[in-house]
Design goal:
The protein is α/β, with parallel strands linked by helices. It is 40% helix and 11% strand. The longest helix is centred in the last third of the chain and has 24 residues.
């Protein structure tokens, strides 16, 4: 009998850490894990799988060998400035750091472990806290992402398990690296709900990006207007996810769970609260059982308010996977707050729900615009159904 869910997590000798002040900080993972421990969502019997080092062969499912070698040289401080520039390394977003190759390969290996946990039949679901690096390209790092574990895992699912993969990305930033990796592939469907690229990196993810060749129609983008709030997002997300899953008929659902659309996040202009981050895994769980015999892999991603937002939002994914959502109620445990309050850069949250958020004056206009975008994004699916 399949076990419910496995958590892929483990402290590594090679943390994926650019520098202390970089927003993509590994402390986000430790904060989330410790919160799950303190609320009693993890215990000695919880299936806990440590990330492994992905092989060069696995990395080359997506990345060019020259890029992998460049990352290895960068890890040792031996990469020239010109080669670094050619491969998107040593930028403000993605600076080089000691043992960067090993750190990035462990993140990839963790996501592959999550895939194997589910596809082996041992677990229905798996969650890799450290995954979700969706901006990396075949020969270039981008946007905090060196190796693209999301794309590598999808290609791994195709090659090893012959699976049709539905990839759902709710990071505030468009999952460009994953989209372009499978833009002509009819066996991979990418659905990305993100802030419009008019205002935000990477500037892609337009509703007109629908795929090419045999993959036309399997790239679906819903660029949300800036300052989109919970109710508008949840309405669009639920309609899109349900219709796309029914249309594509996946063997497995992979969700990228960036939480940088929260109104406290410093790197986007969306206006979500924890209400959205409860809705996201709830629907993924339902549709995984409806379409995929429960097969669901969740990975992390963005989220740069590491003290107030990320631990609560990511904890909700594990609680949903393991049917323990009743633990996300009322006050956060004092033990967790005491553990981190001296180190925290701002006051830690007192409760699971967010305080009431001041409504956006343009709410009606934004909601209407997002509904129109949804119609455009799903037009080809609805037209196909009518034939």
């Amino acid at each position: 009998m399949k076990k419910e869910a496995a958590l892929i997590y483990g402290t590594s000798a090679h943390p994926y850490k650019f520098h202390d002040s970089h927003p993509f900080h590994p402390l986000r993972l430790e904060l989330t894990y410790s919160l799950l421990v303190e609320i009693g969502a993890l215990n000695d019997e919880t299936p806990l799988i440590s990330p492994r080092l992905a092989t060069d062969e696995e990395l080359s499912f997506i990345h060019d060998p020259d890029f992998i070698e460049a990352v290895k040289l960068a890890s040792k401080g031996e990469l020239s400035d010109s080669m670094a520039a050619a491969h998107g390394l040593n930028t403000e977003d993605t600076p080089m750091f000691h043992q960067m190759h090993e750190a990035a390969a462990y993140l990839v290996g963790g996501t592959l472990n999550a895939v194997d946990a589910v596809m082996s039949g041992n677990y229905q679901h798996a969650f890799h806290l450290g995954g979700g690096l969706h901006h990396g390209f075949r020969g270039r790092a981008s946007g905090f992402c060196v190796y693209n574990d999301s794309s590598i895992a999808i290609e791994y699912l195709k090659q090893r398990y012959n699976a049709r993969v539905l990839y759902i990305d709710t990071d505030a930033h468009h999952g460009d690296g994953v989209q372009w990796a499978f833009y002509d592939d009819p066996d991979v469907c990418t659905l990305s709900l993100h802030e419009t690229g008019r205002y935000l990196f990477p500037g892609t993810g337009h509703v007109t990006e629908k795929g090419t060749g045999k993959g036309y129609g399997t790239s679906i983008n819903i660029p949300l207007d800036a300052f989109t709030e919970d109710d508008s997002f949840i309405s669009v997300y639920e309609k899109a996810f349900r219709e796309v899953a029914d249309f594509f008929k996946p063997d497995i659902i992979v969700t990228q769970n960036g939480v940088d659309a929260h109104h406290l996040d410093p790197l986007s202009h969306l206006h979500f609260s924890l209400k959205s981050y409860q809705a996201i895994p709830t629907l993924a769980h339902e549709l995984a059982h409806q379409h995929c015999d429960g097969r669901w892999v969740a990975i992390g991603g963005g989220g740069y308010d590491k003290w107030r937002v990320v631990p609560r939002a990511w904890a909700l994914i594990w609680l949903e996977m393991t049917n323990q959502t009743e633990l996300a109620f009322g006050a956060l445990p004092k033990e967790w707050r005491n553990m981190w309050e001296e180190q925290a850069e701002e006051p830690l949250p007192m409760n699971w729900p967010d305080p009431d958020v001041t409504p956006i004056p343009r709410r009606t206009e934004i909601t209407a615009k997002n509904a129109q975008t949804l119609e455009k994004a799903l037009y080809h699916i609805r037209t196909e159904k009518q034939r």
